[in-house]
Write a structure and sequence with these properties.
Length: about 375
């Protein structure tokens, strides 16, 4: 089969590799019908994740069709269309029993595209398949389901739930990339009073408005004055950091009210200053987290019932053979306008079927 292989910092190859095989009775082999690229994949290519070995097939988000299952898998069968979760769960360790699958001690957690081969390939081996895949309803397309593999559970769990967003709250989301836009959508499930989104890119602020933000601002504007003006000079109830830089984290800390919650969603590669000299007296709660995907079943049920608002996050669509171009487009969002890219296998029911080499296809 063909797969996208990490060769070390700055190098990736789309090449022929061995097909995956069942290694454990709880495994499934899945044909990849739709896959996407995550910002974390770019972090890996930048050399920021040293736990990823050379030769690793990247990717941890996909929708596909079951091809084979191990002897212990009794609730899945060949032909089932499934969502592959970005987090795998052994289901037996203390953390899995608490629903903290991201911290799994039994061989799960974030392993796909990290410590084992991932989803940016024609086929993928999925460990703990019964607890790490979700059979998809017919009315949920590959493309929409793909958004539930990572970014929607991440925004909901690490942002909305960790941030304790309540009805009537004022929420600030710093960063209007895919995670920030998904945070807007999942915030709306609990009806906050204001959703203020801060991002330097006009196109992303426009996308935030379309997703339902009350106010969008550039960080060059007086964000603090806006937040104080909307909150009787108190500050935001919840501030979500959805970028992963010191400046955006520190901005969130400066916008929060006494007793508020700062939910850090972004992946950080360098230290940020924590101004405890200002915060110690304010009863501020700061949360971090790797997604557990404990909410995936709920979000899928809401999507199936048309109760989950889903902004149009896919800006570019490619065929699987165009994976290298998909990376090129996704890694240059300022030039390409890319938000999320969807890459379809030739047998996907939702494959566009007309892709030609060198021609990405924007979708709006």
């Amino acid at each position: 089969m063909k797969a996208l292989v990490y060769n070390g910092p700055g190098s990736r190859t789309w090449k022929e590799v061995d097909d995956p095989v069942i290694q454990d009775p709880e495994d499934a082999i899945v044909r990849v019908d739709a896959v996407t690229i995550c910002g974390t994949d770019l972090h890996i290519l930048n050399g920021d994740v040293p736990t990823v070995d050379k030769g690793r097939i990247l990717g941890h988000e996909a929708v596909g069709t079951i091809q084979a299952v191990g002897s212990a898998v009794t609730d899945l069968k060949p032909g089932d269309r499934v969502l592959i979760s970005c987090i795998s769960s052994c289901g037996r360790c203390p953390y899995c029993r608490e629903g903290r699958y991201g911290q799994c001690l039994g061989g799960g957690g974030w392993i796909l595209g990290h410590t084992i081969d991932g989803t940016q390939a024609e086929l993928v081996r999925v460990p703990f398949a019964s607890r790490s895949t979700y059979v998809l309803p017919e009315n949920v397309s590959d493309e929409r389901a793909l958004m539930l593999a990572d970014i929607f559970p991440t925004s909901y769990e690490v942002g909305v739930l960790n941030g304790c967003v309540r009805t009537g709250d004022t929420v600030v989301i710093v960063g209007a990339g895919p995670i920030g836009l998904a945070a807007i959508a999942t915030c709306k499930l609990v009806s906050p009073l204001h959703i203020i989104v801060v991002d330097p890119a006009p196109s992303r602020r426009e996308a935030a408005e379309l997703a339902g933000a009350s106010v969008t601002m550039s960080p060059d504007e007086d964000v603090q004055a806006m937040v104080l003006g909307l909150t009787e000079e108190l500050g935001a109830d919840v501030a979500m950091e959805a970028v992963g830089t010191p400046g955006t984290f520190e901005l969130c800390m400066g916008l929060i009210r006494p007793g508020g919650h700062v939910a850090n969603i972004g992946v950080h590669g360098s230290p940020a200053t924590l101004h405890l000299e200002d915060l110690w007296i304010k009863d501020v709660t700061i949360t971090t987290g790797l997604v557990d995907t404990s909410s995936t079943a709920l979000l899928l049920k809401l999507l199936h019932s048309d109760l989950l608002p889903m902004p149009n996050l896919i800006t570019h669509r490619f065929g699987l053979e165009e994976m290298q171009e998909a990376y090129d487009v996704f890694s240059r969002p300022a030039e390409t306008g890319a938000m999320k890219v969807a890459v379809f296998g030739p047998e996907s029911a939702h494959h566009l079927g007309r892709l030609s080499s060198g021609a990405g296809h924007p979708g709006h």
